[in-house]
């Protein structure tokens, strides 16, 4: 099963920057971003997250976020999508980068999850 990455950030530039960074090591991994609000406001939206899920061609998505309210919107979107979404409570940049790099070389999901354990936010 092909896996993709979804980045959720409160700030448009952060989401776009993480996307840009991880594409340097994972050019074949589908990545979509839901970041910021209209008119450049800070925040996340359920609608943008749903769009990121749907725009990503992968059926299994690894989702990474920056702050707690992004997690709340992600959890609501996960309940509404038919895709398999794995939500990671890990450091956004480091974990998205690590997961994407490992997906690029066809690392099994179980091994990716093991690599992300030290990046868990407590």
Automatic annotation (TrEMBL):
Keywords: Kinase, Transferase. One of its GO terms (molecular function) is phosphoenolpyruvate-glycerone phosphotransferase activity. It comes from Candidatus Enterococcus dunnyi. One of its GO terms (cellular component) is membrane. It is an enzyme of class 2 (transferase). Component of the dihydroxyacetone kinase complex, which is responsible for the phosphoenolpyruvate (PEP)-dependent phosphorylation of dihydroxyacetone. DhaM serves as the phosphoryl donor. Is phosphorylated by phosphoenolpyruvate in an EI- and HPr-dependent reaction, and a phosphorelay system on histidine residues finally leads to phosphoryl transfer to DhaL and dihydroxyacetone. Homodimer. The dihydroxyacetone kinase complex is composed of a homodimer of DhaM, a homodimer of DhaK and the subunit DhaL. Coiled coil: none annotated. InterPro entries: DhaM, DhaM_N, PTS_EIIA_man-typ, PTS_EIIA_man-typ_sf. It catalyses: dihydroxyacetone + phosphoenolpyruvate = dihydroxyacetone phosphate + pyruvate. It holds the Pfam family EIIA-man. GO terms for biological process: glycerol catabolic process; phosphoenolpyruvate-dependent sugar phosphotransferase system. This is phosphoenolpyruvate--glycerone phosphotransferase. Its EC number is 2.7.1.121. Residues 2-122 form the PTS EIIA type-4 domain. PROSITE patterns: PTS_EIIA_TYPE_4.
């Amino acid at each position: 099963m092909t896996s993709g990455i979804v980045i959720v950030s409160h700030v448009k530039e952060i989401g776009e920057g993480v996307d840009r960074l991880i594409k340097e090591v994972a050019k074949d991994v589908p990545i979509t971003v839901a970041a910021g609000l209209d008119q450049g406001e800070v925040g996340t939206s359920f609608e943008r997250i749903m769009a990121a899920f749907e725009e990503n061609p992968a059926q299994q998505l690894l989702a990474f976020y920056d702050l707690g309210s992004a997690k709340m919107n992600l959890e609501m979107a996960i309940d509404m999508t038919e895709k398999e979404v794995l939500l990671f409570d890990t450091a956004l940049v480091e974990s998205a980068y690590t997961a994407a790099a490992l997906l690029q070389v066809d690392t099994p999901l179980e091994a990716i999850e093991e690599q992300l354990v030290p990046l868990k936010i407590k």
